[in-house]
Structures are given as structure tokens and as C-alpha cells.
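[audit] Reproducing an earlier prediction to check determinism. Same input, same settings, fresh worker. If the C-alpha cells differ from the archived copy the diff job will pick it up downstream; this log only records the rerun itself.
[audit] input (427 residues):
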Amino acid sequence: MNGLIPLGDDYSLSRLPLSARSSFISVTLVRVGAITTLAQFMIGATLGHAMTFNQAMLATFLGSLLLQFVSLGLGIAGAREGLSISLLSRWCGFGRLGSVIIGGGIAISLLGWFGLLNAVFAHSLNHMLGDLISFSWTAAITGVVFTILVAFGFRALSWTAKLAVPLFFLAIAWISLNLLAGHNMADLAVVIPTGTPMTIAAGATMVAGGYIIGALMTPDISRYCQNSRHVFWMTMVCILVGEFIINGIAILIAHALDTSDVVTIMIQTSGWIGLLTVMLANIKANDVCLYSSSLALTNMVEGITGHRWSRTGLTVLLGIVGTLLSIVGILDKFTDFLTLLGVVFPPIAGVMLVDYYVLRTSRPLLDASRRTQTLPESTQLIGWKAIAACIVGTFGGMNIEFGIPSFNSLIIASTIYWIICIIKKKS
């Protein structure tokens, strides 16, 4: 079977065989690299400038609950079936064309992240070079470099993560210790923030929105896990490190410096180590963003045209578009971008989890085809029930005043989908 898969394709339109699985350490490093970004520091700093330490950590805990629930549920399904999230959605309620819609949404969202992270890197590089060249040219150059690296697939992700993740944490530790030097940690924990106040619900939604697309695309990475136990520990390590530790440090720094613009200060006051931190953060995060985006777009194109397109070629196309987004200033819409993701993507995850684990609509087809390492021969054209439930869930998450919007949208969509399917089955 390996001989039938083109170089760089990474089983984008087929099951990942057991022979292609990776070690727990390799997969976890790729996953940790995706969540421990400077954008994550920006979230923590935003919370810290608007909330007390206890409030910010409570918001982090609530948002992380949703992320862990989605990551573990979809991650186990991805490891069991060996399928990417957009391909798996064909047999989790959405059908062939429904998976096209999901693939398009994932590709667009990850392009947003790619543009955001590339813009942060370009601004930092410009500062270090004394604005030797324009921001547009810097963003274009860095975007091209990242795109070339990602085109080589998961093995390139694993290789860069093994190098970049440890160095990133060493650099972050050094910068954080310098910025917090002379401050009493106990005093920082009780500082009253001076920024515009934020509710716990809004903070939790920002935390969930900050990585909900990462939670949704867990199968893209977890399909390389050896078993479900590896998936559990991979997701748990990522939540503890990426959310609680990174957010906790960023909150304390925001209190110490009395600003939410922590990332800029961290970079501009740390010389070459600050620049190294940005480079490492972008390499490991943008790798995963482009990788999952290319898988989603490959499924989307095949679902529409019926033909297999080169994942490597689509990666280059996505890299160009993402670079253009960073040039036109996607960084300015960061908070709005996260809030929107926080209510749009949880319904998709909710519907897929209900269909796969509760209703088990296509489980017989998946189980039978798994034994021969093929894909089910039949699938519905489009899952209108799933799409309708997601629309209702998103609308509810955006308009219900009480509770946490991300939780609301997931629960509403899941419940609506389950009710519709039960009624349809009985009738």
C-alpha cells in the first residue's frame, strides 16, 4: 500500500496503516508544538490584563475542559480509523459534500492562524533588522520558507518539533525569568488588573476559541498514535503545558508589566533570544497549521471534483494565500477571530462525537472497511441533519446571554442532532 501513496501525500485520502504510525514522543512533540505558540501567550496576556490571576486561571480551566473533551473524543476516533478530521466527517454525519464544507472551514481558519503567526514573526524580524526591508517583503519571505518546509509532510513536522520544542521552552523560560525578576509571585497573583474587565464566560470562550480548531483537527495528528492510551496522554500533556503553564506565565507577566502587549515586550527586550523564540514558535506551529489545512483542502477538492490532487501542490497554494493574509493585517482582528472560532467549530465537533459514539450511524461500515484498510464504499451525499444542527448551535452560541458560548454551541448542536436522528429513525 505504501507504494501506491505519492511522496508527500501522507495518506490524505486513505487510512493511515499501522506500519506508518509514530512513537508517542514524536506525535506528542508535534502536538505540543502546535499549542505552545506566541499566540497562546497573547491569549494569556489578554486574560491577565483584564482579570485577576484566579479569574484568568478559572477561565483557562473552563475553556480547557471543552478542548480536552473534543480533543480526546475525536483523537481516539482518528487513531482508531486512521483518518484525518475532514475525511472522518464523511462517516460522522456530514456526508461527502458536508465534509467538503468542513474541510473548507478548517482550511480557512488555519490560514488565518498561519497569517497571524507569520505576521508576528515578520514584525519581530523587522524590529531586529532595524526595518531594513518593508514588513510586506519580510512576511513574504518568511511565508515562503515555512511553506517549503511543510510541503514534506508529517516526517518534516516530527523532525522540526524534536528540535524546535525543547529550544522554544528554554528560550521562553529564560525570557520569563528575566521579565519577572524582582517581582514577588504572591504579589503578582493578587494584582488588580487595569485593563478593560472581561467576564469569566468571555475569557473561557477566548481560551476555547484559541485552540478549538486545533482540538477539532486532533485526528490529523492522532492517527499517527499507536493506540487510544497514547491519544489520552498526548492530549492531556498538551492541555497542561499549552494552556495552564503557558497561560499562567503570560498572566503573571501581564500583571508585572501592566499591559496585554506581552509578546512584543518579550521579543523586543530579549535580543537574539527573542528572535529565536519567534522563529521556533512559528516553525512548529505554522507547520501544523499548513499541514492540517492541506489535508482539509485535499479532501475538499476530491469531494467536489472526484479527483485526487497533490497535497504538496495544495500546500504551496495555501502557503501563498496565508502569506498574503499576514501582509494585509490579519493580526488586527485577533480577538474577534478567536471569539468567532469559539462558537463556530464546537458544533461540528459535537455532531461528530454524537454520531460516532452514540448513534454509531456508520460504525458498521467503518469497522468492516478497517479490517481491509480501505474506505467504506458507500456514504451519503450530504448530511442535512448535521448541517442544520451546526447552524442552530452556532446561532445559539452567539445569541444566548448566559453561560459560556463555546459550551452552549456544542451542547445545542449535539442535542439537536441527536433528537433529529432519533425522530427520523422512529418515523
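[audit] rerun output stored. Observation attached for the diff report: DSSP finds 19 helices and no strands in the chain.
[audit] end
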